[in-house]
Write a structure and sequence with these properties.
The structure is a homodimer. Chain A is built from 8 helices and 11 strands. Chain A has about 230 residues and is of the alpha/beta class. The longest helix of chain A has 15 residues. Chain A binds a DNA duplex (30 and 30 nucleotides) through helix 6 and helix 8.
DNA sequence: GGCAAGCTGACAGCAAGCTGACAATAAGGG
DNA sequence: CCCTTATTGTCAGCTTGCTGTCAGCTTGCC
């Protein structure tokens, strides 16, 4: 795992694998180092022994209930900010969540953007500055302002270019195959020619200069000097 | 932070005698020293002169409206946490309440348990209040008077325009995507065309002049910084 | 050398966003 | 209760700049 400018750790406790994957993606994109678990026992142990800057906790867990986990954390003086996810509209859960020591709650279904916004607010309120900066080599990516800078000098990129960079940054420990990038940028429903991606890469390279986006022929693209 | 068990004062402003009685009972049981009034004028006077740790405020008051009371408090720098109750749980009222300075909001009918939970949460994190005057570049917003000024010169804006500006101000560190603005201004239940937002932006720009509201194509709108 | 993967400049299509006009609705005043 | 005014959503036409495609080229690999 490569270094981030600020090291914000987040724990996501969610048993639905699809939501869990979304959580991980969104939080990672927001600059958190994310750990995911769907098991209540596991969650309790992690939250009790590790230091997180944020916990996203789903109440609808099998086995050990999310509320019980939260109460046991609070009973042990674990004071990290906890954002609780509740099934839709059940007022009891909200009440219990707050009384158990949740710092904020979000009813399902929710928008990832809102979750990120609330998560940042929580972290900021807790004292730490939200980790908005991700770096790889000379490239730095401000996930909050959606800004890109090379060696500190801001560079203007388009939305598509930004998404591409963000995805590479998220997976900077490996070369990302063109097929995967195409699917992430456009979705498999909308079929684009492979050359479209190459065009985006070319334009980005012209803006960022050499030595930022590398190619491993046959494997994919990656951020250099990460 | 004060202790709940020692001496927490709460003011309940509610004209319906039955609900008022319930409020008093529940808050007392929760450890508050409770005072109740059903008169807006009386409430305003009490809130302005006495020090409360919590206010529960019903908007549906005769004579002096609850919202007006709240605004007058905030205008006088009374920063105690206020939990607003409203009968008509419309989305607009919630916005108005929060923008008038409410710290939380509860639609009727509600469960007493939930009210107590929210009240406790409010008291627990009592402290952080939005500043009365917010600025970004040449633009300044007076959140108490709902007033807008550009370079010190007051500009008259409509309620909708103000809400848009307030939201941009609240998130002035990032570009706000149109989808998010649409959701905030109208709510997802009421679907508007995307162009409605552009129309509001255009009108605002004409009033405020250039260099205030910026656009980052593909990312969203933002307030130009100093 | 030959093939396939990848690069690049040019360009046209297209989508995001802007604006003025207008109608419908809401608010206010007599 | 009617009249007046302000607010605001919708529409049509327009501008801008993003982005996919194409053609031709370079590079690596066998």
């Amino acid at each position: 795992m490569k270094r981030m400018s600020t090291d914000m750790r987040a724990l996501a406790v969610e048993d639905d694998p699809r939501i869990a994957a979304d959580l991980q993606a969104a939080l990672t994109a927001a600059g958190f180092r994310v750990e995911v678990t769907g098991d209540g026992e596991d969650a309790w142990f992690l939250g009790d022994t590790e230091d997180y800057d944020l916990v996203v906790l789903d109440l609808g867990l099998p086995a050990l209930d999310g509320l019980a986990v939260l109460k046991r954390w609070r009973a042990n003086d674990r004071t990290m900010p906890v954002l609780v996810l509740t099934a839709r509209g059940t007022w009891q859960e909200r009440v219990e969540g707050i009384e158990a020591g949740a710092d904020d709650y979000l009813p399902k279904p929710f928008r990832m953007e809102e979750l990120i916004a609330r998560a940042r607010a929580l972290v900021r309120r807790a004292g730490g500055h939200a980790a908005a900066l991700q770096e790889a080599g000379e490239l730095s990516l401000d996930t909050n302002r959606m800004g890109v800078a090379i060696r500190g000098v801001p560079v203007q990129v388009t939305a598509l270019e930004y998404r591409l960079l963000a995805y590479l940054m998220q997976h900077r420990d490996r070369p990302v195959p063109p097929t995967e990038l195409l699917e992430h940028l456009y979705g498999d429903d909308d079929a684009r020619e492979a050359n479209a991606l190459e065009a985006v890469i070319a334009r980005l390279r012209r803006k960022l200069g050499p030595g930022v986006i590398g190619t491993r022929r046959g494997f994919g693209y990656f951020l250099e000097a990460a």
